Structures are given as C-alpha cells and as structure tokens.
Amino acid sequence: DKLRLDPPEFTVKNYACQRRTPLKHNNTHLTHALELLAESAAFGENEGRSVAFTRAASVLKTLPRSVQRIEELRGLPCLGEHSLRVIKEILEYGASQEVESTRQSEQYQAMKALTGIFGVGVKTADRWYREGVRRPSDLMDSEQKLNQAQQAGLQHYKDLNTCVSKAEADAIGVIVDQAVQAVLPGAQITLTGGFRRGKESGHDVDFLITHPEEGKEEGLMPKVVNWLDTQGLLLYQKTTRNSYLESKDGPARPPSNMDRFERCFSIFKLESQSCSPPEREKSHQWKAVRVDLVVSPFSQFAFAVLGWTGSKLFERDLRRYAGQVKNMSLNSHSLFDSHQRCFLRATSEEEIFSLLGLEYIPACDRNA
Ligand code: DCP
Ligand code: MG
Known about the structure:
Helices cover 43% and strands 15% of the residues. The chain is α+β, with helices and mostly antiparallel strands. The strands form four sheets. A five-stranded mixed beta sheet has the order 2-4-9-8-5, sandwiched between helices. A hairpin with a 2-residue loop joins strand 6 (246-247) and strand 7. 35% of the residues are buried. Bound molecules: 2'-deoxycytidine-5'-triphosphate and magnesium ion. Residues 193-194, 202, 204, 206 line the site of magnesium ion (MG).
C-alpha cells in the first residue's frame, strides 16, 4: 500500500556517536517520558531495559522537528515495541498511563529521593526501601549505618539537589585553577562533563587536569586537595589513586571499562556569588557543590577529554562502535586496535574520531 512505499520521514544512524544531538530539541514531552521509564528500570537494576529507553529517547532528540504521528517514526533505529507504544499513547492522548503511574508510585518517588543522596547508589537505596525508608529525613535518626560520603550527602542534601549554574561552575574553575597553579605552575585545567557540552546547569562540575610535561602530573591530586582543604574550601573529599600501569609499548589494558586516573570526588564550599557581604551575613552564605577532579598524563589527555565530556550514552556508543564496527577497544586512556594488536596514539579528539572512521562531532552535539 501507499504507506509502505513512502520514503521514511527521517533517517537516523544507529550509534549515538554517528549523529549530532544538540542540547535543545523538539520532542522533550516524549523524551522526558521515555527517560523516566529508563530511570525507573535502572532503579529496578534492569540495565538492558534502562538503556533501551535511553536509546529511544536519544533518537528522538536528533529529529529536526517535533513528531506528530507515529507513522513518521517508521524505519528509525532503537525504537522498540514498548517505546513506540508509549510514544503513540502520548501523541494520541497527551500522556502515557504507564509513565504517569510510575511517576506517582511510592517506589519510584522513594528511589528517586534516596538515590539523590550523594554516595547512595541503587543497591543501597533499594535495600533501605525494603526496610521501610522513604525519604532522606527517615535516615536522620534511624539505625542505618551511613558512610562518610552518605553522611556528607545527607547533610548537604538540599544544596546538592539544586542545579549548579554555569556561573557557579566558572567560579569553581577559577578556584581550581588557583589551586593547581599554586602547587604545579604550568598545569592546565579543562572543564568537561555537561558544561563542556554547553549545558547551562548541571548536577556537578567536572574538571580534567594535566601538565604538558609528561610525568609532572604524578602525585598532583593530593597536593591540590591539600591546598583546597587548607583554604577551607572543601566540605568532603575522597581521592582515589591512579592504578593504571604503563607498559613498554603503551598503556596496559585495564581489566574493565572503568578508568584509572587519579580522581577526587569532592563537595566544595562555594561562597555565594551575587549577594553583597552584609546580605551574606543574614542566612545562607555558601552553597555545597559536587566537584569531580581527574588528573591525566599529557599523553592520554585527548582520550581523557573525550571520555569525560559525555554524554553517558554518547560514551557508551563510542565504545560499542569501536568494538563492534572497528574491532578496537576505546576507553578514557587509549585506543587499542585488536586486529593490528597495537595502541593508536592521538593528541586531539578530532584525531580519535578520525582513527575510528567517524565524522567529528563537536562537544555541543554530543548531548545524546
Ligand atoms: N563519566 C565516565 N565514567 C564515570 C563517570 C563519568 O566516563 N564513572 C563521563 C561521562 C559523563 C562525564 O564523565 O558524561 C561526566 O559525568 P557526570 O555524571 O557529571 O555527567 P554530566 O556532566 O554529563 O551531566 P551532569 O549535568 O548531570 O553532571
Ligand atoms: Mg557533570
């Protein structure tokens, strides 16, 4: 019939790293719904289902205009039966029953609130939920044992669940640069994560630190953290050491996808920017802000920037594409060619895309 003979309305490539995903798009009413189902699946530790909904949402983000009819989606990748059913319902009735009942459910709301505590993952939140915990305040005078991160998370719950603005991220950038220059002149810092993709707000601020002279960056993190701490700028910090071993012909392959840079998960005490000093006296004079610091050797810097810019789905698909299409193994340290059995060097993100045979996607279009 006629419908089948019509060419598809849109064409979209399969992997997120093969297409441009700008920050602003035309289908937020659909993507928010699918992302809520993805989140709920993640709360149920169903990663496959969660990624499937995330991928479906991501495809809709790349479309140049708002979807009106389900038929327009014919031929698009990553849209499973379940996602299509949800989309169809929203297009026809304005909302999806499954999405709305999930949003209202006690379990979803409790898991959302509990995983919103810094230091609390799905496993812990789920255990607490089964033990009757529903809100962060339920933890205040309960028997539950909290580790240091969770204690800090609970203490600064409100601030840490208030979005970080770009202005606040920039203010923290100035402080981090000061700290880094004080302990290692010539070191360079780069804003990564969502803010590098052009987001105007985020849940944390991510920085990558390096030094153009290879080796100079070794042991840098404890010094930076100590400097910040001495200035009274840290409410919490946990530093993990670099566990990555260099071998003769290149970086050794890490056993997992996790990267092994020197890393610091922290909570900054950011003095209020806008208020004048007398106003500051009155009430809240500072804000707790989550900051992630990562130190990379210069030789791995391009891979580190690419790996820490995100989005998470873009990263996932870059790695999947490298493995499935190119028989290569990509992580935040290196690119390994399994066929030639060697590491491929690169000094820029552009080079890495080119080694993967991909068109270069600028950071602002990696909002997959
Ligand atoms: N990342 C990673 N491995 C991790 C954590 C993060 O590869 N264990 C990457 C992918 C993310 C980026 O680093 O896009 C930053 O992580 P965030 O969780 O801070 O995510 P975003 O910065 O993208 O978003 P938000 O605005 O929520 O901070
Ligand atoms: Mg971030």
